[in-house]
Amino acid sequence: MSLRVLIAEDEQQLARVLTAALQSINYEVTAVENGELAVKAAQENAYDVIILDIMMPVKDGLTALKEIRASGDRTYVMMLTAMAEVDDRVTGLDAGADDYLTKPFSLKELLARLRSLERRNEEYDDDVLTFADLTLDNNEQRLEAHNSISLSKKETRLLQYLILNAGKALSTADLINHTWDDDDEAADAQDLWINISYLRQKLQAVNSTVQITGEKSGPFTLLQP
Amino acid sequence: MDIYGQFGPRLHDVLTRLTDQIEQLSHQEVAAGRPKLYEHLIGRVKTPASMAEKCQRKGFAVSTHAALRDCQDAVGVRIVCNFIDDVYRSLKLLRQASWCQIVEEKDYITNAKPNGYRSYHVILKFETPFADVDGATPGYYYAEIQLRTIAMDSWASLEHEMKYKHDVKDAARISRELKSVAEQLAACDIQMQTIRQLIQES
Prior knowledge:
Helix content of chain B: 40-55%
CATH topology of the largest domain in chain B: Beta Polymerase, domain 2
CATH architecture of the largest domain in chain B: 2-Layer Sandwich
CATH architecture of the largest domain in chain A: 3-Layer(aba) Sandwich
Shape of chain A: elongated
Number of helices of chain A: 8
Order of helices and strands of chain A: EHEHEHEHEHEEEEHHHEE
Largest sheet of chain A: 5 strands, parallel
Helix content of chain A: 40-55%
Number of strands of chain A: 11
Largest interface: A-B, 16 and 15 residues
Distance between the termini of chain A: 39 Å
Order of helices and strands of chain B: HEHHEHEEEHH
CATH topology of the largest domain in chain A: Rossmann fold
Shape of chain B: flat
CATH superfamily of the largest domain in chain B: Beta Polymerase, domain 2
Strand content of chain A: 15-25%
Radius of gyration of chain A: 22 Å
Oligomer: heterodimer
Number of helices of chain B: 6
Number of domains of chain B: 2
CATH superfamily of the largest domain in chain A: Response regulator
Structural class of chain B: alpha+beta
CATH class of the largest domain in chain A: Alpha Beta
């Protein structure tokens, strides 16, 4: 994947260097020189990363960030802050930035952070997990062993977490936490128990040897016998 | 005379006797306070033309003997159940039944076919008061029982439409979608089964 990057930076020299460096590793780069143009570009185009300088004319980076977030945009945002300004960094992160770099920063470090972001996007948000005789396709919400079956979104998330923590005793609270979003969904131990029951039956239906052990009150453990 | 010869009309009597027996099994369950075994039953005698075609395809003689002995599905009954558990309950009762003997079982529920087909097939052998093709009276007949859930049955109907329409556009895509919906229906069957258990436990 080639990342699409929006850079908002009023120092022309720095903007040119960043643009050239990112283009040389095949990122698609758009560079603008103030916060207002950044907000406009973010409204019109889709980006994977927005790099925002804090100190900019016309509209500063922090104001631009707030407007971008207020419009519902969830793009990964990296702020560029001056060395001394701890408060800027705190305000930036609190206003919805995902990361920051302190000026002057090394180009090497910026590139490493972008690579780390790419990894997170591609590898860790894993499409397919395997465990023992199981294959879990997170995109297709599909479980396969001897046989294949569909999973609901909740079952997929729950099984993914159980696989990533196979062999560990996971408490009811922990599993609820990782399966349901706490801000917009309510779930209790009974909801978890029903989903564990679905998964157990589905593991059996695909003829897998993998088991989820645990009594109704938890904890639960994914085991390969 | 067709491939069944003098046994043609008899096969319908055999089918009636068989469906009566299976209905009895369900009645006994209900009488014992358990849910009915199945949602519905359908039976058929394979048409003489498709039986002749099958004998040819399998390399058997196109004869009455081959149709009733080498082939064992001249008489067929499909047991369509509400829930997966009912499929297994029906199977258990068939295995225990004194009036028939199970000759073969094919579990396409655990071992779903690559296209997504799910069903449990059983070949039964049972005694009737009629003469059979070997000249014995009372005679033996074979029948194929297919056990499946309503969801598996709906899927099979859809797949059947696809199979017998030869000019399906983009058949590969339709096959992929069929396979995917089979997985979703299997998931629904499991979820309904699980909910049923939760209700029974509470």
